[in-house]
Queue: 4 jobs
Job 1
Amino acid sequence: MELAVSSFILVLVLALYNYTAPGSLAVQAGERGRFTELSLFAVRLASSPEFLFRLWQDWDGAVQQANAEARSIEPLASVNVTRPAEGACPSPPAPRFSISLATVLPNGTTVCVVVRA
Amino acid sequence: MESIDMLIALSLAAFFMLGVYFLSYYFAESSKQTEAAAASKLDAQEVLKKILQSPGDPPDWTDINQVNSLGLADPALPGMLDPRKLLALAAADPDLAQKIASAACRINAAGQDYPVTKIGYGIYMWGALTPVDVNPAVYERILRSLFGDDWSKYDIELRIRPALNITVTPAGSQVFVKVDPPGVYDVDVCYVAWPGSTPANPEPLGVYIRGAYVWTQGKNYYARVDVENTGGPAVITSVVVGSTTIFSGSQPLGSYCKTSFAWPTQGTSKYNPCGSATCYAQVTFTNATGTYTVQAPVSRTQPLPFETGCYTPDVTTPISVCVSGQTGEDGRGSVSVSGLSLFAYAYVRGVMLKGVNYNYTGTGTVSLIGLVAKPDAGVYVIHSKLIQNAGQGASLCGCDDPGVSALGLRYLGVFLGGQSVPLYNDLTVNPGSSLDLNNVCGGGKDVGGCLIPWDKIGRAKFLIAAVSRNSQGQPPKCGEIPQNDVIVMPLAGGLPPLYEVHFATWRRWVGHRPEALAVSHASAVADAGEITYVVDLWVFRYP
């Protein structure tokens, strides 16, 4: 009886260890890498004169085009542009990441470029 | 009985101690491996960042065997990749050997051979783009600069490709552009074409439909028909697209004049004038000899603007025009050309990705002349007879025909792109003359080739050389060399076919991707010249 219980506990400890600690480390590191990629992506978009000018002229078309280009690089990424709320860019919910950057259109309007994945 | 209980208790204690020993060993190893895998995932991002943001060591390296630390940034343009480094890295790809085997050529001047590399129809780069055998010490230096003393536990693999896949298709009196991924892109299309009724394009005089289009924007349909008249004065009486008459009336169209008919003339339409699979546009006109109808198939792509108005015909020089506009939502765009398109170049810009590509149509393998770009001097204009296969004697480069005859050229015009500014007229290049690399074009001498200095070229998008062959010479026996030829050298945006890079340090010890303890991947987009590249990096970590 004691032997069976001891063996069960050992197997349980082993299974729990494999399920948590090693996987967690790898996932955390991988997510940090993807976050860095998306951050660079968001910065590039928010500082692109072509994007800001087109956004000024044709808001929906610019966002649609940004999504088309973003997904060709990162299939899970999506782009949205919002107005600041109470002077700050909101961080909308996302499955994994949500990066929100403030930028200024050619007409001086401040907008928030949101990249999610 | 008690001794049995004691035995069981001791056995359990021993088993537990052994279990703890083995499990702690297992946990340590497992954690170590996992930490290594996790660390390498971060490594990929860090390594990619370093490669893209630093110029490397030496900062101006152009030979992979010089490299102490790998970096692709342009030291003169922060944030941009250096196209010369991409080219040098591409040359380190062993798979390149087959691609460029037929591209190795040479020119001879003052008794000395100089290597040049053929990179397109009639265009060459100075120097030999031979595959570089990478010194194994280079791999060590690169890995050591990235991973320090643990360098031998790592390998990297780098793949660089243009972010936009751009297809340019010159097709008669139209040029089609297709961009992948689909979307609405700003696009500049520059094309070179022979106008109608010229020796190179003996099109009968008359009224022509240069392009007919039906396209959608949102849920609305639009149509346009572009018409040119190279004959006597005419009057357009009707224009029909599919089964829809988009113009009916009387519109004069003079000789050598162009016009467009757009539909709807006001507002928008949700009606598709081309409901069937095959759809044609018809233009009915009246001139001094009667009433006629011409027709052309309709392209379902969004057209770029068509320049209307009248012009003075010139039968000796090709036309070069640049048009700016947008593609449709499907990433397709088209341009109407006043004549027979030979070459087209497209510069495409999305909201954060950009790219270029170009294409010739209907050309053989051997051009009449070659344009050879030398980075520290300019562009040489050289008779093709003097650009020979490397190591195969007196033959044309790209054509193994030792018996080829000399051809005299009697006209050479070199133009700037965009505004088509002529640089030289009536330049004669004679293969019977020796080649002097110091000879600058425009001296009026009988030469085999000459140099156009970079300061003369300025910031042109491309050079155009229009050439007419002296028919007295016997044509070469291999392939068709045209009587009239146009060579176009793009000068902006690099040379897409050569800029797909695959560099891997694991080549130091295996010929394919190795098994590794951990493989991590990172990607980024970066610009070099007028092209946005996607850069993928893999880091391999070994035990």
Job 2
Amino acid sequence: MKLPKFPNPFRGLPLRFDREGRRLWKDFGMSIAAFVCVVIALVPLGSILIEAAVRGLQAIGPSFFLLDTAYGGIGNAIQGTLILVAFASAISLPVGILTGIYLSEFGKNRFGDAIRFFVDVMTQIPSIVVGIFVYSLILLLSVSGIVSVRLVFSAVAGTIALATIMIPFVARTAEEALRLVSVSTREAALALGIPRHRMILRVVLPTGASGLVTGALLGVARVGGETAPLLMTAYGSGFGFSGLDQPVESLPHTIYTFALSPYTGQNQAAWGASLVLVLMMLMISVFSRLLLRSRYPLGGAGR
Amino acid sequence: MTLKVRTEHLSAWYGAKRGIEDISLDFEEHAVTAIIGPSGCGKSTLIRCMNRLHEVIPKARSEGKVLLDGEDIYALSAVSVRRRIGMVFQKANPFPTMSVYDNVSAGLRLNGVRDRKRLDETVLRSLKHAALWDEVRDSLDAPGVSLSGGQQQRLCIARALAVEPEVLLMDEPCSALDPIATAKIEDLIFDLKKEYTVVVVTHNMQQAARVADYTAFLYLGKLIEVNRTRELFERPAQDLTEKYITGRFG
Amino acid sequence: MPEKAERKALAEGLRALNENMVTLADLSELAIRKAVDGLTRLDPDVSDEVFTLDGEIYALQLEIEKNCVDLIALHAPVARDLRTITTSLKITTDFDRIGRYAKDIAEITLRFRGKEPDHLRNLGSIPEMTEIAIQLVDKAIRAFVARDAESVRHIQEDDDAVDLLEERAFEELVDKMTSRSLDVGVGARYILVTRYLERIADHAVNIGQRVVYMVTGDRVPRIRAVDRANRTR
């Protein structure tokens, strides 16, 4: 992979101070200032990665991945995160994408605007509020006897919470991805006498597919790191997955509990878990980028 | 003279803004009719009413009739109208995720045709009709968008021809192309009129003069004059037409 | 905007063309006037002037042809511009011809070698013919300059007078020659002059009719005087 060439700000520096010279010096000064700002922005990101790597690597070993949290490993946390994210995706991806399709293909009216507005609002809801919402919802349902009270702290609850966060996000990114499909592609399909529903299904969707996939992966990355909503729903457990109606552990939750624990062993495990979580998220981003590039070697979706 | 398509007192609006006003125009079968006029005069609006693409735009509406072989196109389904009246756009727009083969066969495939043999024949015939076969015969699986601009436009023409329309509407088909590609497409139009009825919207008057049998001049949404091309360009009846074609306004 | 610039170049070209056409027309008219003046006074010096004019006319005509071809090649003119250019292209021939006939008349003047006792009497209706012919040329030129189609729409009828005069002159001269009051060698020259004048008038008619096309796009049909007379009956 070719690294971008580092621009040489020192090139072309004049040895004069007339108007032309002053302009060049100003240009040079701004380049330096911009560069410094980049460094400042990257420092926290870099230091997080470095810290996590340095401190976390010590904790990592085969047993780290195989043992449950009750025994100092994170095996069940990884499993829990995967299960929660998988089920949440199973619900939110279809719902979100279909909403996105509705908004982009049929939503150019007042009703569509209203939906779009509410979806936007939902993407901004603090995740802990979502947690409380799901918690109280299930509680109320159980009080009126519709569901068992066990579900209050369960994988089901966690899934619902994560799905609630994911759906509006996926809906919006799906709409954007489909919006990128140019009007002229749609018109070309219609002009061939292709009925509208088929135009959407077999022309617009495939054209916007990479954008949809990217949106889905980003949604996954987003909820994979959520802690707050899981506190009051999935709750956490020391052991592996034991049923949808049981509490389930998750990586963010593990990091939280291990970091606050008085045991240094667990503190270190927290760093290990952090490293694992960061790497997982990083892999999803890289993967979605590679997917984009393989479909469109010239770069860009829906052109 | 057989009239393939006729418009009767056709007007169209985008919301409150009127695009064309009371246009009654005849299009002769197996002839090329050019529609010329300055930007914004309603040329594109007119042809988009003819294949019912105008109604797809939100808040668009139209009044008056468009008759295809004497039948009101609004009495037919939009889908069937568009199969009989095809369109090629200003900027070539092959489907980005499809190969050359898939692009040309899209009109058939996406309407349920699966028979490979029939698709193969159609693709061959259409690409030949569009004078593109020789250039792509060995790369039918290449992405549609990998062709040059002129080739892409001919691909779009092949795609439109594949559904065997009776009328072909072309909205400034050469405006994004270099002179050589333009010449190829103009030659193509000349050949196409043997089997199809062609309507070409163009802002290039010399192009209208070169390819069209009839030319209609539109200005500010109204039909100013329509006549055989050679008459219109030699002795236009309307002063406004004369001014436009000699370049004395704008 | 390139479109505008192209039209400016065309407008400039058309203006220059028009100027040249007017010059050509003036030269042609001057040529006949001088030629006939020279013939009337049997003045050989005037003939030389006419020869020079004819040369200029020919050169100018070539240049105008070139102008027209350039304008067509470069600007793809249409409608009025196109008709103006193609008309100009055609009537330069007519003006050139007029110049040539003027030259021919000047040549005849030279042949007389300045002696001819009954010359003025023998000229007969030639002066009258000349006047009408020159008027026709003048009328056609004015119509061209003013782009006035109506004044020349019926110019063919004006030519009838010239044709009649030519017939009359022919008969008179043949009479004189057969009755030996006029030498055949000399008489033949007069007949040629009437011929040239009649042709000049015809060319003026051509020009006039082409002006009608240039301005309106209409093509005036060519009808023989006889048939025209029959029609109006």
Job 3
Amino acid sequence: MTDALSIRGLSKTFGAKVAVDNLSLTVRAGELYALLGPNGAGKTTTLRMVAGLLKPNSGEIGVFGHDVLGDPAAAKRVIAWAPDEPMLYDRLTPLEYLEFVAGLWGVEPAVAMPKAEELLRWLGLWDNRGERCEGFSRGMKQKTALAGALIHDPQLLILDEPLTGLDAAVARQVKDLLQARVKAGATVILTTHILEVAERMADRIGIIQHGRLVADGTLDELRARSGERQATLEDLFLELTGGEAALTEALPA
Amino acid sequence: MIAPAGSTLWLMRHELRLTWRGLAQRRGGRRGRFANIWITLAFLVFLMLIAGAPLGFALRHVRAIPIEPLSSLIGVTIIAVTFTLMLSQTLAAAVDALYERADLDLLFSSPMAPRRVLAVRFLAVSFTVFAFFGMLVTPVLLPVAVMGHPAWLAAIAVLFCVALAASGAGLMLAAGLFRLIGPRRTRTVGQVLAAVIGAAFFLAAQARNILGGAKTASLFSTVMRLSHDARFQHVPGLSWPIRALLGEPIPLLGAIGIGAGVFLIANQVLGARFAADAAAAAGAGAGGRRTKVARRMRFSANAFAATVTKELRLIARDPALIAQVLLRVLYMLPLGFVLLRQAGQAQAIALPGSAAALSLIAGQVAGSLAWITVSAEDAPDLLSCAPAPIRTLRRAKLAAAILPVAVMLAPVILPLMVMAPWVAVSAAAGCAASIAMSAMMNVWWQRPGKRADFRRRRSSSWLVGIAEFLLGLLIATATGLVAAGLAGWGLIPAVVALVGVLMLSRSDAQIAQALRAAS
């Protein structure tokens, strides 16, 4: 079976700073993959390259067999990208926004409109469908952006910090939606700093630091590697990224 | 002297610092700011040499300006024009204060009285408006003062009083609109009104061109006629503006009293109410503006069409943008009337000039809209993620920018096709060339910005901005010459413009590289 995402030897530098360093990574089709790492580890840069928003210095990226660098249009057709800051138009309503995004992906209105209604109802935005996004709260904007990412039924959904700034109820809705998508056969890659979310939701977890993949596998595989069978993801994360040592050093004597 | 924190003076210093930084921000980087200061200084010296010095020299032996009906009417006109132009800016500032809240929430949440906060903000607005006019007037007045008329410097003080009065009036107008039509409409109406007020004197001066007919006089001839009218010989107070401008103590004190009085009364009476209005305006925004779903234009399953629809819809829903574009369209109106009227009456003298001016303004309007559609994209990553070629999306954005200009030009060009076909063809070709040039410059030299920064927009280089304006002038000259039947002569500026455009063109790779460097 074709992998949902296949990255080989990916590197990206910004001036002298190496953001992603010879990274190789595989995400299987139909799984929910959590990409974790400290701030500035290169998670967002990696995902932006996968979404075709950044050109790498070197390396290969394949999405469901499509070469992202060689045939970006074909790859983009099956990808949806939702960054941490929602990409919205303040002066469009959620319904108009979904229509527009559907148009960009070439989805006929006859198909897009029922889908938009379904998504907006599911996310509790149907009553707000006629209001412009300018007055929306952070959670409503995030949900609208998520609906936009789903309107063209992507095979690969890439979400950068999808739960940041959301209240408990909205966060639950988003999590439920992502799990439903995975059940329906889609692949989800997300980054998050909320490690409990990754622990409970992800099929596999990748930990990235200084632009390199330092660990990759299921939670049990990561535990087995560290030899701590009862360890939480937080323990493993801090151990693998050297965060625990830094914490101990920072504590007053 | 350092003002104590929390005092009015301290707040005033804060406001002026923000204003200065806002102005400095218009040119990116330290080098840009210095270049700006040097250009401004050079312009002021130039103004002093070409206007101030000759005027001072000419008036050096004049002992006093006679106070008679004509000079009185000129004084009134100067004050009225200045007040109107300033009012358009202060009204826009008052509307901005209501909706573009920036730090107002922070200031209102502090223990400072909202009335004091607003008074300081509007005083800063007065200073800013005054600074612009003062900068234009001072280089002219200074040589005149040095060469024998020091009292005339009082005109600068009068100018500040007019700025104060305009600031108070702007506040009253915004508060009045808020009461009259509610928070949602005030924003649009206020901004459009500010644009119309700004162009009011231009339109009044063009009344003859718009209305036609022998009875309609131009502004200057109206002033001349009124000055000889018996009813204006003994109007009390008519001479006060000119007396104040020339530095007579009592009228000058009167001007100070009126300016400060209007400002203080407006702030005293409306300050607290305006603060409440500002809170209500924020509430109005949070409620979300409803849009009629049934009457909308649909998005289609085509990236080009969907993007055109999106851009047109965003333009139509942006009151600040409409007000800014409207200002330029208002300048276009009289030119359109001139073309049609003179073509109808077979008075071909001013036709080429109007065709040229029409092409220049059409290019500027298209340039403004192209900046909005190309550079002020709210969700660039969304479009980059879409499986549509960037060229298709760019073409859609340019089409959305050009379409409204074409619609505005059609009522002028189409009738002209019947009345004066050659002029119509020349004007249409000139407008098309000017629009294409402006649009492409906005693509080649795009600089991402926010829609809200429309008024402070800039291309990636001030040199390119100047080049764009000069190219527009060249195309306008070519249009005028061709419309006048001098097609051979028209070729020269046209070819120069074409060479200029080609020199400034950039490939997709160069655009992408520049955008990466800018981000």
Job 4
Amino acid sequence: MLNRILVSIDGSPLSFKALDFAMGLGKACGSEIIVLHVAVPFDLSKLHSYEMEKLEDDITERLKKKETAKEELTEGEKAKAGSSALEVAKKKAVEAGYKTIEFKEVVDTEPAKTIVKQATIMMAEAIVMGTSGLGLMSAALLGSVSAKVVTNAQCPVIIVK
Amino acid sequence: MFKKILVPLDGSETSWHALEQAIVLGNKFDSELVVVNVIQPYNNAALLAVPFDYATINQGNSELEKIGDKVLGMAKEKVSAYAKGVEFILEVGHPSERILSVAKKTGCDAIVIGSRGLSGIAEFLLGSVSSKVSQYSTIPVLIVK
């Protein structure tokens, strides 16, 4: 039943909790895990971005050390801002010692659609995701992305709280 | 994780799928199951403005209870081979509310629920009960298609 689990992460703390949950589930069932991060370009709803926060911390730290005075962001750092969700996920997987795990990044403006599509393409037998992620409106209720995924997915969906 | 799984049943196709999934999960995690059926008491009389007396209403409600017992009876047959403990609960009231309160009372740490149940006029694709449960529950919810 749970041979392939797709975990969608967006960099929010809850999404990493979903990853932990999936790894716990996967260990018991011996399943492969696909970690999917949908990068949304020009996403204005992402005003509070954990990724950007992290990047800012990095920069202030470096400024403190006077490594970079007024340098522009390098290409590497720009890429880091986007991929840090996956980086954190990779670290978590290594920490947990989870072997059968893949990472995938997709750029699309519609996360919910992409998650459902990728789940079908990757033949996932379940989707694990957090209730609400980074969107502004989502904190109050079930997030818009998770609600859409639940209604449209072909496979069981586990909503982690 | 998955020490005790709550499975709300209403006798619909997807709710049986949910029970099957819960059994598969439960076998892997050695978890106990709690099977709950919620019946909604017959209270449409006021809505229809028909002067029903209590006897009629009670008769309707006892009929509903019989149906609830039957659903739980069918569930009992399906889980007869299950190794760990299974609890059966019949609740009366508002479905999603009762489901969540049972989850809290019995100390379940996951809910496995069908995406839509018996109700015809539900929200477009996800049923109203399952969407409410997944919104308001404090424990992980597995929604089975």
